[in-house]
Structures are given as structure tokens and as C-alpha cells.
Amino acid sequence: MNRVHWLKSSLFTILMLGIYTFVANAVVFAEEDQDRYDQRMALYKKTAALTQIPWYYLAAIDQYERQILEDTNADPIISIQFPDEAWYGPGNLEKKKDVASIDFFQGIGRDGNGDGLADPDDPEDALYTIATQIMEYGPTEEDIRIGIWNVYKRDLAVHTIKNTAKVFRTFQKIHLTDRDFPVSLQHRYSYRSTWGDGRGFGGLRIHEGTDIFADYGTPVKSTTYGVVELKGWNLYGGWRIGIRDIFNIYHYYAHLSSYDKNIQVGQVVKPGDVLGSVGSSGYGPPGTSGKFPPHLHYGMYKDNGHSEWSFDPYPYLKRWERMAKDKK
After folding, report:
1. 226 shares its domain with 320
2. 138 and 201 share a domain?
3. Phi then psi dihedrals of residue 39, to 5 deg
């Protein structure tokens, strides 16, 4: 074998080994990821059996807490956290974890696995503790929502958890990672990064989204799993739809020309569900249209448990566009 053939053979071998390693690692990570979701589901269902709080509400509470963790890289089995003073009790300065001490100091920590200890870092104990707090208010859906409000003291938290529970209940699973591009790939469209650009109507403000230009009537689709939170006229956005997903992100679709006849507030949607059609509505009273070329304004807003802010959807749109084309 001459040197050129040897080099080609070696490079091919290295390339194939690299591909094999990448695929093998991807399979391992996928299996580990699925195993993590399976562990969570098992804990939700076990705690539900003990407390009669439906598993999808426990899953939704855990999911909400996971989105507001200060350490965004953390991915514990259960993400529910409690202040030390509340868990151990105000006078339990040594943070004794035995149930007798926590009860004596009027802490809220509970033993979820029967080992005699209430450990806030134990997934079963944390999940059982939040469930017992909510259980105090009763077993009905309304009782559960009252219990959640008394834990978080925030209407948006209750609303988000309720909607996430609705999604989990509808699909009977928590590992929901599919996504879609917000306009039909079978129609002409174009877009670029426009987040942060200046806007003049209604006063000096920045553009909080990405404009996807397309013809009138181009189908607009849900990019994610979520619940329709708002539908109707907005001075700036015209006919718009707002969807909150299971990651506590609000997806804003604006300037529509019409809605799909089946879309209603409170409805659960999945990636690819048609929401309406591209238009040029907005910048005036209800019915105003044609003040700019037809396009979909797509915005994303993140809630961290205290406040909500806009962020650039463009990188996500590029990724979802690739995913949609791969599926096609």
C-alpha cells in the first residue's frame, strides 16, 4: 500500500471511529435522559398514591421549580426546594433531620420514604413534603389550586402549574421534547434576527421577537406543547395568540389574519397544531390591518418565578426549522 492509500485508509478509519463514538455516546445520553424521566415519573406516582394528589400536579410543581432554579445547569431528580428555616423549624439551629426534632420545632419537613428522617435533599422527602402541604386544603382540583397558591403566593405560579399539569395529564408523559417551526414549510417565508430592533408605534420601544415574513393565509403553527393562555386583539400585535409551555415560557404569535376555528383559550396544543394564519393586523383599534407587510411576529418570554422578560427567539427558530425539515 503506498503512502497516499495508507493516509486515505487511516483518515477513513478515524472518521468512522469518530462517527461510531458520537452515535454510541448519543445513545448512552438518550438512555440516561430517559432513565431520569422514568425515575421522576415513578416518584410522582408513588407520592400520588400516598397523598391522593394527582401525579400530574406533582410533576407540574416539580417542573415549575426546575425552571426557577438559580443554578441553571443543575438537573436533580426532584427540583423542589425549601428554605432551611421552614423545613427544619425556626429553632432547629443544628438542622436535625429526625422527624421528632422537626415536629418539635414546627418544621414542615416530612419523611417520604420511611427512614425516620426528613431530608430536604432526598427526592422522596421533598416531593412528599410539598404534597402534604397542598393536601391540607382538600382533594378537589380547586382545593389543589388553593394549596398551590398558599405555597407560592403568586397567581402566575398557580396558572403555570395548572396548565403544565393539564399538558402532562393530556399526553400522560413528562418527556415532551418535540418542536416545530411556527409557519408552514410548504409556503414561502423569510426571516432574520430582528430582536432588539427599534420600533416607533406606541412610543420608543424595542422589537421583542422575530418577524417571519410570509403571504397572507400562510398557516401558523404551535412550536411547542402548552396551553392557549390568551387569544384576541392587542393594540400592537393585532389578532394574537399566547401559549405558555411546560418550561414556563410564553410564546407570542401576533399580526394574524384569522384563527383556526378549533383554537380556544385553555386548549392544550402540541407542536404542529394550526393556530391561525399570517396577516398584517395591529397598530390600531380592533380590525386594523395593512399598515405593514404580512408577517408573523413570534416572541418568547421567560418567567423565573419573580418576573418575566423577553429574549431572542431567533436561535430557537433556526433549530426548530432544521428539526421540521429533518422530519419532513
Report:
1. yes
2. no
3. -60, -45
> 301 and 250, same structural domain?
yes
At 275, which amino acid appears? L
Q: Please write the tens of the pLDDT for every residue from 25-41.
A: 333 344 557 899 999 99
**Cα–Cα distance for residue pair 40/46, rounded to 1 Å:** 10
- Contact criterion met (CB below 8 Å) for 288 and 281: yes
Cα–Cα distance, 49 to 182 (Å, whole number): 39
What lies within 8 Å, CB to CB, of 26 at 6+ separation is none
Query: Whose CA is closest to 309, among 250, 258, 235?
Result: 250
- Take residue 73 and report the three cell numbers written for it: 445547569
Here the cell at position 1 is 500500500
Clarify whether residues 207 and 167 are in a common domain.
Answer: no
Residue whose C-alpha cell reads 405560579 in the numeric block: 157
Q: Return d(Cα 62, Cα 286) in angstroms, integer.
A: 40
Q: How confident is the model at residue 194 (pLDDT cuts 50, 70, 90)?
A: confident
Tell me the average pLDDT across 156-167.
96
Query: For residue 114, which amino acid is it?
Result: G
38: domain range?
22-81+120-171
pLDDT at 278 over 90: yes
The whole-angstrom separation of Cα 197 and Cα 241 is 22
Residues 257 and 156 in one domain: no
The structural domain count of the chain equals 2
CA distance 1 to 8: 11
pLDDT of residue 115: 96
